[in-house]
Amino acid sequence: MPKLPYNFSIATLCVAASLGLTACDKSMPPPTAQQEPSVSTQAVAPTPAQAIEFINQAERSLAELSIEINRAEWIYSNFITEDTAALSAAAGENYSRETVKLATEAAKYANVKLDPVNARKLMMLRGSLILPAPADSQKTAELAQINSQLNGLYGKGEYCFADGNCYSQPELSVMMAQSRDPQKLLEVWQGWREIAKPMRPLFERQIELVNEGAQGLGFKDVSELWRGQYDMPAADFGQEVDRLWLQVKPLYDSLHCYVRGELNQHYGDDVVPANGPIPAHLLGNMWAQQWGNIYDLVAPENADPGYNVTELLAEHQYDEKKMVEQAETFFTSLGFEPLPDTFWQRSLFIEPSDRNVVCHASAWNLDNEDDIRIKMCIQKNAEDFSVIHHELGHNFYQRAYKEQPFIFKNSANDGFHEAIGDTVALSITPSYFKQIGLLEQIPSSDKDIGLLLKQALDKVAFLPFGLMIDKWRWQVFNGQISRSNITKLGGNYVIDIKA
Length: 499
Prior knowledge:
By secondary structure, this protein is mostly helical. Among the domains are: about 45-155; about 290-499, no CATH class. About 55% of the residues lie in helices and about 5% in strands. The protein has a two-stranded antiparallel sheet. Strand 1 (about 160) and strand 2 (about 165-170) form a beta hairpin. Helix 13 (about 320-330) crosses helix 15 and helix 15 (about 380-400) packs across helix 16 (about 415-425). The chain is globular, with a radius of gyration of 26 Å.
């Protein structure tokens, strides 16, 4: 859910101050040429009461503005046209302009001693921006247009084969998951990335604009702003991430070595070398972030649990809606209230055939109360069955904090939301499949190795991917990676983390 700014008029304050300085007090003689007006030039420090009033006003305005931007972005993501792009860009421009104004105002109260609740609200008002716009109104409009264009290019992206057949990202992802033809996989991997070429100049300009916006708020660049949102100094956060990664790296190294060996046996040395990185296009995922789709190629002997979730879903006639209904049942069994009727009326489960949409799975809360939805082009397979549970984890979390003050209607940081979704996904076990009627019998414990490997292919494999992407973003936005190397990480980081 975007965080939108309070419309606080600095111009109004300036006018009021000017009137106060020029108002005539009849008890005072007008200043002569030799006299200076009796006006103190010492700034008056803001009081806690003033800071709290600012926070309260900002919060009320934020709540109203958030609905406007949420609706504009929902419509654009589900109906990608020039008109909806313009509406989204306009809403985004307003959002960026007001957010920067709000963050600037919040900085004025940075040294005011407040109670813990209001102190955290003030900190979040200043530091929770994602893509801060410059103060210049023309640049703010330009950034909003760029953001809208990038979103549209991604949503409409497709790759066309030599035979003239064109496929969207969800359709190409199915090919990546199912094909075992290395040449076709390489073509799909490279073909999908062709959509990024027209994005590059837009992205490079976006970097310039948001860095200027971050500098206007007192940060070196937007990278420092992002890394400063985790209750520790920005530099410390990067070090903490590296420390945690080194704790799990040996497990990843073992997984990587095992998978590389199995793929080498399947494809041969010419396709998968016996040493070094694994060719990313062979890992069953459009971004190589999760490897579960190649389980059949790397599964150990006698570890097959004896079932295939994708086949079980088909056997029990699960369509897209039934998959979501089953995920809802998981949460209601824990004591949560069922999803509202509007969820079923307004969510997107199936990729439309008559228009372009952004298919990437996402969870939404449009009114900060009960208008929760998911947007997802569901594929009837095991991976999406798990993803649906993950996305509904976001929705139920959103509704759980709906009674909080507006600024706190979010997770403590972005990691909390994802952690809840992933924790829920870990509950998708054979016991769960038996409980919901997909399985008749739970596999014996000697099949646990296969099940654990399958979890590792998705969860352990993702860890270096997530770290690599964030490291890349930080280095791109702080200038450590130059424009000429924007498709690379600094040094040998990718090799180091993947090897």
